[in-house]
Design goal:
Largest sheet: none
Order of helices and strands: HHHHHHHHHHHHHHHH
Radius of gyration: 21 Å
CATH superfamily of the largest domain: MFS general substrate transporter like domains
Distance between the termini: 37 Å
Strand content: under 5%
CATH class of the largest domain: Mainly Alpha
CATH architecture of the largest domain: Up-down Bundle
CATH topology of the largest domain: Growth Hormone, Chain: A
Length: 399
């Protein structure tokens, strides 16, 4: 299981790296294609809108493919090849000065790259025994966290570089990694076949599922507000702009290190319980960061906020897989990723409208993450108690 988890970590690392390369060079490539700079934010928003739609659609498709054909890896390799080809062509097509061709390649890339979000989670949900899910999910998200931590350094190192080189390297690396998906699926199927029978676990149903995904939406919005909108202004109270490249990764360092104790807590207490604890912890860390008296205290709080987000995201993934078990893991995790993409879309829309520069709105944004995460945490805590109550009553009655 560990080897499979490390493989999926590599895939997620390369996927996030491709997105980082895309964001770094998009303004330059759009200008070469004849697109004004003011439209760049809307192109980014369009990609997130496509992710929102395609993440859920790809998850549903993954469930259907597994039920009918029993093998998903081949489809993922094909879709990723198309995605990498479109991504590779972006810096080659931009100098031609054709906006239509350039935007068409972005649409193809965004649609097909969604194959690397929910469908691999469907594979994990199908083959990984429930007790091992937190560990494999932790390793998978570790790749995402490492890529997030390295993004500022990648941005600094790629300044002035010909975009064709990083686009080619990231595309080739990703398709080489995903080509091993057939091995990963076979490996997971082989190890899962010998697993012991799983205990029946209580999970949210009906209204509980709606509350769970409602909490996910709030958590996603809180994350976007805290990290993407608030972190830099909070640091600039104590540091110079040139130092942001070294300060922003602290959140992701906390994510990468504290995800391991969060994994152990998940194995013991369950996904929704750890999600609730992570949400409340993140709310407190974010609120205290807004009033941090020094750079040192802000760094500690950002580290803790990153760890809280790790607990939330890892537990949300395992809980979503549990909700979709059996046969709908792709749809459930697709819904999770779709809501996170929608949160990113919302944040970009706020920036496009320049509302974050309004003094009143910016003052409210400082406290939005804490409020959103706290409400989500309370919802999840109530949901955890609601799900566990019948099991406790049943145990008392049998004794």
């Amino acid at each position: 299981m560990t080897r499979g988890g490390l493989y999926f970590a590599a895939v997620q690392f390369l996927f996030v790296t491709c997105w980082t390369v895309y964001v770094i060079f998009l303004p330059q490539l759009a200008a070469q294609a004849g697109i004004e700079k003011k439209w760049v934010i809307y192109i980014l928003m369009a990609a997130q809108a496509i992710f929102t739609l395609m993440d859920f659609s790809m998850g549903v498709a993954a469930d259907r493919v597994q039920r009918v054909l029993g093998r998903l890896g081949r489809l993922l390799v094909i879709l990723t090849a198309v995605s990498c080809a479109a991504f590779l062509l972006l810096p080659l097509a931009a100098p031609a000065g054709s906006p239509v061709l350039f935007l068409a390649l972005i649409v193809i890339w965004a649609m097909t790259s969604s194959a690397l979000r929910a469908p691999p989670m469907a594979l994990l949900g199908k083959y990984v025994p429930k007790p091992k899910l937190p560990w494999v999910s932790t390793l998978t998200l570790l790749g995402m966290g490492i890529a997030g931590a390295g993004a500022p350094y990648l941005t600094a190192s790629l300044r002035g570089v010909d975009p064709r080189l990083p686009f080619a390297l990231s595309s080739v690396a990703l398709i080489v990694a995903v080509s091993a998906m057939l091995w990963a699926e076979k490996h997971l199927a082989g190890t899962g076949a010998n697993a012991a029978p799983e205990a029946v676990e209580k999970k949210p149903v009906g209204t509980g599922v709606v509350l769970f995904f409602g909490a996910v939406a709030l958590l996603g919005l809180g994350f976007q507000a805290h990290f993407a909108l608030n972190s830099a202004p909070l640091y600039l109270r104590f540091a110079k702009p040139a130092e942001l490249d070294y300060l922003m990764p602290v959140f992701w360092i906390g994510f990468n290190l504290l995800i391991f104790p969060a994994c152990r807590a998940n194995e013991r207490f369950g996904g929704t319980a750890v999600m609730a604890a992570g949400a409340v912890s993140g709310a407190l860390a974010s609120a205290l960061a807004a009033a941090a008296p020094s750079l040192e205290s802000l760094l500690v709080l950002q580290f803790l906020a990153g760890g809280a987000w790790a607990a939330v995201l890892m537990s949300a993934m395992t809980a979503a897989i549990s909700i979709g078990h059996v046969g709908c893991e792709g749809a459930a995790t697709g819904g999770l990723f779709a809501l996170l993409a929608f949160a990113t879309f919302t944040r970009m829309g706020l920036v496009a409208a320049q509302l974050n520069q309004d003094p009143v709105v910016s003052a409210l944004l400082v406290w939005l993450p804490g409020l959103a995460w706290m409400v989500a945490g309370l919802l999840l805590a109530w949901l955890t108690l609601r799900v566990r109550a019948p099991a406790a009553e049943s145990a008392q009655a049998s004794s």
